[in-house]
């Protein structure tokens, strides 16, 4: 391939590329880093929001566990009294109370999972931030070494 032919192929390839193409670039955020859902479609959650959700899940876990036990004890007592008097309703109420315990446990497990996951997420993000800042600081140290070597 002759040099002229190579130059012609490069010129043709360059003319076919879009003038609007940008690589390794994200457009600047017009809101100064606080993009809105409509503008960018990003989910923005603050640590305060996550903390409130985690606290609500923990409070529900604590309160529901305590209060649901009152309902279970009362229902089982009523079921026992009804059964001792020969009412068929006593057996049905006892069955409902047993199922109640299963449902309460499922809800409490879900609340504990939410609370624990948010705590884990918070700790993991803190660890990630530390790791990233360590990597970036080592890159800047490396850059300084290159600058010193160049004489700059």
Automatic annotation (TrEMBL):
Protein name per its UniProtKB record: AG1 protein
Species whose genome carries this gene: Streptomyces variegatus
Phylogenetic lineage: Bacteria, Bacillati, Actinomycetota, Actinomycetes, Kitasatosporales
């Amino acid at each position: 391939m002759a040099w002229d032919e190579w130059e012609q192929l490069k010129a043709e390839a360059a003319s076919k590329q879009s003038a609007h193409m940008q690589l390794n670039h994200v457009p600047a955020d017009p809101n100064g880093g606080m993009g809105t859902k409509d503008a960018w479609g990003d989910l923005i959650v603050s640590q305060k929001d996550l903390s409130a959700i985690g606290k609500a899940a923990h409070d529900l876990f604590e309160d529901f566990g305590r209060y649901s036990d009152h309902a279970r004890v009362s229902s089982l007592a009523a079921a026992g009294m009804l059964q001792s008097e020969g009412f068929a309703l006593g057996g049905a109420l006892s069955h409902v109370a047993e199922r109640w315990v299963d449902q309460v446990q499922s809800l409490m497990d879900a609340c504990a999972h939410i609370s624990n996951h948010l705590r884990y997420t918070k700790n993991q993000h803190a660890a990630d931030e530390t790791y990233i800042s360590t990597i970036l600081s080592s890159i800047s140290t490396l850059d300084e070494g290159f600058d010193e070597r160049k004489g700059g």
